[in-house]
Design goal:
The complex is a heterodimer of chains A (409) and B (88). By secondary structure, chain A is an alpha/beta fold. Chain A contains 12 helices and 16 strands. In chain A, strands 1, 2, 5, 6, 7, 8, 9, 10, 11, 13, 15 and 16 form a 12-stranded mixed sheet that branches. A two-stranded antiparallel ribbon of chain A has the order 3-4. The radius of gyration of chain A is 20 Å and the shape is globular. In chain A, 58% of the residues are buried. The model of chain A has no long low-confidence stretch (mean pLDDT 96). In chain B, helix 1 packs across helix 2. The chains are: A alpha/beta (409), B mainly alpha (88). At the A-B interface, loops of A face helix 1 and helix 2 of B.
């Protein structure tokens, strides 16, 4: 055992990209997928923009039996899971079912399905509520459905820590691989662009009410006024690095380090936890700050939170000490899907030696960040740091690195 | 007066809506004596189909009905026995 965890497959269902290469081309092209909400009538709400997954016909992608029992979020997850496993060349026959597992993150579960069934309950009565409501709404449903469909019956679970969940799930999968599970499908997909999901997100007080898609989500800008939500995310195939090597798998990179902290009580005057999460992740990766070639920012677009993130990055890497990017300015913030999508993008940055851009924002020079703006930036990327903060005080940081060593032996 | 009965075609529609169609199964084929298990439906799909029939036809199906009536023919017999014309 090397103890290393390799990423061997990617599956993306996200705004701008139904499929990894679609997504990557869209992001490198600087195309924003943020626009007026189409999935429900949002006209009566103070926020009306979202990043939505391109339209698709679910029957082209999933077996008929799964359609009546799945929310949109699970459909997106099942499609991404299948693509990720194909991408990894996973062979079900080669790995015992209990050596393969699923660990996803979720923030809202199947809200659209649940909303419909609650409406049936109120308006028609209990006899009209779907039997599938028993699980279709639930946070763990993506893990469960993927596990059943692909016969991945090892130690599985779900993590719920809002935006940070996309990293927390990958870290949990890495822990389980270290304990002996051979292959784990992990990451996050969320999709709750429905009235229930909308109200839930509005209640958090961080949605932008700006109506112009080109001005609504402006992280690190002096006029930052909240974010635009989105749907989708990425699922990744993680494997013990040695197993991946032995079967000759193509490796995107390794999950090299992780740190997670929780913020102190509001008003305590103590330092927020993000800087410490970054330092823990670097320490875990045995990486010096100068070995990190790009930071994928959380990019909250709330002035206080932008300041905290800029300060944390500045303290660890120095003023303008590392390229910083936020491709989520093109997709919106995807709850648990955001950070795993950033990890996928970071691995593609390593593969293609290019950093995707940040769009539609003009960072305030006062933040002292080297934000990659407008066009993708060619760069040798050996290691990348991905940051994610979850509403309520979660801070997570994850280092992905070009795999080295094993292949040369 | 005539009373609406559950036909095989209506049952097909209900199964399709409630549980989809298993790959490799021809739901429009000769299914009347096939077991629901052979048709690829699990207990949850049958529960969903059962409540759908209850709502549509105003009948009551006890929980074990689907378990004990393993084929479309047997199920239709149970449902339609409750749909006897009342003024004839």
């Amino acid at each position: 055992m090397t103890g290393g965890t390799a990423v061997t497959g990617l599956g993306v269902t996200a705004p701008g990209g139904f499929g990894v290469e679609d997504f990557w081309a869209s992001v490198l092209g600087g195309h924003s997928s943020i626009g007026p909400v189409r999935r429900f009538d949002a006209s009566g709400y103070p926020a009306g923009l979202a990043g939505e997954v391109p339209e698709f016909d679910v029957e082209d992608h999933l077996p008929s039996r799964l359609i009546p029992q799945t929310d949109r979020v699970t459909r997106l997850a099942l499609i991404a899971a299948e693509w990720a496993l194909q991408d990894a060349g996973h062979d079900k026959e080669r790995i015992a079912q209990y050596d393969a597992a699923v660990v996803t993150a979720s923030s809202s579960g199947g809200f659209e399905f649940g909303e419909g069934e609650l409406r049936n309950l109120w308006s028609k009565g209990g006899a009209y509520v779907s039997a599938y409501q028993s699980f279709a709404w639930f946070y763990a449903v993506n893990s469960g459905q993927i596990s059943i469909r692909h016969g991945m019956r090892g130690p599985s679970g779900v993590l719920v820590s809002e935006q940070a969940g996309g990293l927390d799930a990958l870290a949990d999968a890495r822990r389980r691989i270290r304990k002996g599970t051979k292959i784990i499908l992990s990451g996050g997909i969320d999709a709750s662009i429905c009235s229930w999901g909308w109200v839930a997100q509005l209640a958090g007080g961080r949605l932008s009410s700006v109506a112009d898609p080109a001005r609504a989500y402006r992280p690190f800008d002096a006029s930052a006024s909240g974010h635009v939500p989105g749907e989708g995310g990425a699922l990744l195939v993680l494997e013990d690095a040695e197993c991946a090597h032995d079967r000759g798998a193509r490796v995107y990179g390794e999950i090299a380090g992780y740190g997670a902290t929780f913020d102190p009580r509001p008003g305590s005057g103590r330092e927020p936890g993000l800087r410490r999460a970054i330092e823990l992740a670097l320490e875990d990766a045995a990486a010096a700050p100068e070995e990190i070639d790009v930071v994928f920012a959380d990019a909250a677009a709330i002035p206080d939170l932008d300041r905290i993130e800029a300060d944390a990055i500045g303290e660890v890497f120095g003023r303008r000490g590392v390229p910083v990017t936020a491709p989520k300015t093109m997709t919106g913030r995807l709850l648990s899907g955001a950070a795993s999508l950033d990890v996928a993008a970071a691995l593609l940055s390593i593969r293609d030696s290019v950093i995707p851009p940040t769009v539609n924002t003009a960072p305030d020079p006062g933040y002292d960040l080297d934000v990659v703006l407008g066009d993708p930036r060619p760069a040798t990327v050996r290691a990348a740091l991905v940051l994610a903060r979850g509403y309520g005080g979660f801070n997570s940081a994850l280092v992905v690195r070009q795999q080295s060593g094993i292949r040369n032996t | 007066m005539s009373v609406r009965q559950l036909t095989l075609d209506e049952l097909r529609t209900i199964l399709r809506t409630s549980g989809g169609v298993e790959e490799g199964v021809d739901l429009d084929g000769d299914i009347i004596d096939a077991t629901f298990e052979e048709l690829g439906y699990d207990s949850l799909a049958l529960l969903e189909a059962s409540t759908n029939i209850e709502r549509t036809f105003g009948v009551r199906l006890d929980d074990p009905t689907f378990r004990d009536t393993a084929t479309p023919k047997a199920l239709m017999a149970v449902v339609n026995s409750q749909l006897v014309p009342q003024d004839r």
